[in-house]
Amino acid sequence: xxxxxxxxxxxxxAKFEPSTVNVRIKLSALWAAxxxxxxxxxxxxxxxxxxxxxxxxxQIGGFTVNQSFLLATTIYVLIxxxxxxxxxxxxxxxxxxxxxxxxxxxxxxIAAGAIGExxxxxxxxxxxxxxxxxxxxxxxxxxKETPPASMSGQEAAAHMVQPTAP
Length: 166
What we know:
By secondary structure, the protein is mainly alpha-helical. It has one domain (20-142). It contains seven helices and two strands; from the N terminus they run αααββαααα. The longest helix is centred in the middle third of the chain and has 23 residues, at 67-89. The two termini are 44 Å apart.
């Protein structure tokens, strides 16, 4: 009996199954990817003698490393970290607004932080901004639920205001 690999007719007919990925999964994955790049770019900075010297002197990017700085930095990292989960569970309207607003805010701070940096940092920051732009795109174009054609006008209006399950 011929196998699929040895039969060109079967091989030619085989196609990948189209798959639709839920917008919540896309958003969550984009936040996670952005955080990985974010973390690694910062970790790579420790290979730089100038950065290590600044850290030893208690300075990072012109800021004094103290409790307030570390608290603010922790909050700055916690927000996108929580969005990995938030993108999966927040109500669609809140989710959409949070993803758009936070992505824009983070893109601006990342772009500002990359000014005058080394090439690896600029590349990493550009990728982070591209991932955040994708978050804005998917949140902005979040598919709207359409009621079944068989519903009356009032039923359709009532159906549209109900959030859908993921």
